[in-house]
Amino acid sequence: MDIPISKKTNSRVYTKVLIGGLSAVGVYGAITFASNNVSQGKTYNVPQGSLSVSAVSQGAFTEYLPLRGVVEPQDTIYIDAIDGGRVEQVYVQEGALVAQDQPILKLSNTNLQLNVLAREAEVSEQINNMRNTRLALEQNQLKLKRDVIELDYEVLKLEKEFARNKRLADQQLISQQAFEQTQDELQYQIKYRETVKQSQQKEALLQTQQLEQLSQSIKTLEANLAISRASLDKLVIKAPRAGQLTFLDAKVGESKSNGQRIGQVDLIERYKVSALVDEFYISRVHKEQKATFLLGQQTIELSVAKIYPGIEQGTFKIDFNINELSVMSQLRLGQSLQLKFNLSSSESKLQIANGGFMQYTAGNWVFVLSENGEQATKRMITTGRKNPQNIEVLSGLAPQEQVITSSYASFADAEHLTIIKNN
Fold first, then answer.
1. Final residue of a structural domain among 203, 232, 261
2. Residue 3 has what DSSP assignment?
3. Are residues 146 and 226 in the same domain?
4. What is the residue range of 275's domain?
5. Lowest mean pLDDT: which of 18-22, 188-192, 241-245?
6. CB contact set of 349 (below 8 Å; sequence gap of 6+)
């Protein structure tokens, strides 16, 4: 007898067969997808509008570095409180233009004033003492001269007396003893006169040296006295040169210590441009290297004048000279300039545009578009130098090939791209 089969049992069997068939298809599809991934890599569909494409080109390439330059004075003169004191009066304000020797502020220093007065009295006393000593030496020299004159006179008298006595002695009118006494006296006075003259010569030489030393000492003391008096004049602080008073730290009533910096004057006849450079480039920066910036429609050239030693917070400082003096009148202190600092000369090189792809490939590979622009394939390349606009291509690309230069963030692990064109 036939046994009837219920519809419920048929439904279960059909369901099992269907699930089994779908599972087999799924496994086959998974195997096929995995096989494609292993052999060909991943492929992504990418909208055309989300990509930036640039052509590989042969052209002039210069490695340069964008820098932010600041206009600064060529020279700066600092103002210090030499002797210190209390600020009594401020004549000019910060930022003002000043002339040479124009008063900026006035200090008062009671101790300094008293010390200078005491020094003046002391120096004046020493000068007077030296002048008295000099006068005594000169008087002694005059006395020696008078002594020689008197001895000359005595010798002259004795010579005349000796001549008379000699005639009388020859005529035997005087005794031999009297004649010899006159002769001995004359010889004694002559010898004594020679001794006094020698003494006078030595004394005169010594006195001359002493007078020269005294004169020099007096000049030194007078110069010291002038310096002491000048220190009072320095309580009125003046501009050392004509320029702009760009810094002044002084308020009435403040006390300033000796040597404290209170201001600076910038010489505004000439400017320079200063910039900070990343320490990575320290070995590639040299004097006379060039940089440019745009001033209106004009390209202005600069040259490296000074490289400061030392690195702070990963940067070092360099100064540029402005080669065109006529440009300085168009610049202002503190003005910022966008500089293009050339690290190499201009050469004809194969290059591609710089873009977001460098963050993911480091210049080791790119996606190159097919001729019809519908696909892109990953290709290994070699790159060299770069600047903010372009990257030097050493190998792997040919002129006129199209390269995706925008970010690869959404498909960095792909091997192929299918470009979906915009409707």
1. 232
2. P
3. yes
4. 270-342
5. 18-22
6. 58, 59, 60, 61, 384, 392, 393
Whether residue 94 lies inside any domain: the answer is no
For 266, the token pair is: 């910038």
- The separation between the first and the last C-alpha atoms of the chain, rounded to the nearest angstrom, is 68
Q: How many Cβ atoms sit within 10 Å of the Cβ of residue 158?
A: 20
The pTM of the full predicted model, rounded to 2 decimals, is 0.52
Positive/negative CA dihedral, 17, 18, 21, 26: negative
* pLDDT at 71 (0 to 100): 92
Say yes or no to pLDDT of 8 above 80.
Answer: no
Q: Is the dihedral of CA 391, 392, 395, 399 positive or negative?
A: positive
Nearest to 244 by CA among 72, 95, 102, 79: 95
Is residue 6 one of the residues assigned to a domain? Answer: no
Q: Is residue 79 domain-resident? A: no
pLDDT at residue 19, rounded to an integer = 43
Tokens found for residue 105 = 């502020």
d(CA 370, CA 29): 28
β pairing state of 97-98 and 243-248: antiparallel
CA torsion through residues 384, 390, 395, 396, sign: positive
Q: Are 378 and 365 in contact (CB under 8 A)?
A: yes
At 321, which CATH number? 2.40.30.170
pLDDT band at 32 (very low <50, low <70, confident <90, very high): very low
pLDDT band at 318 (very low <50, low <70, confident <90, very high): very high
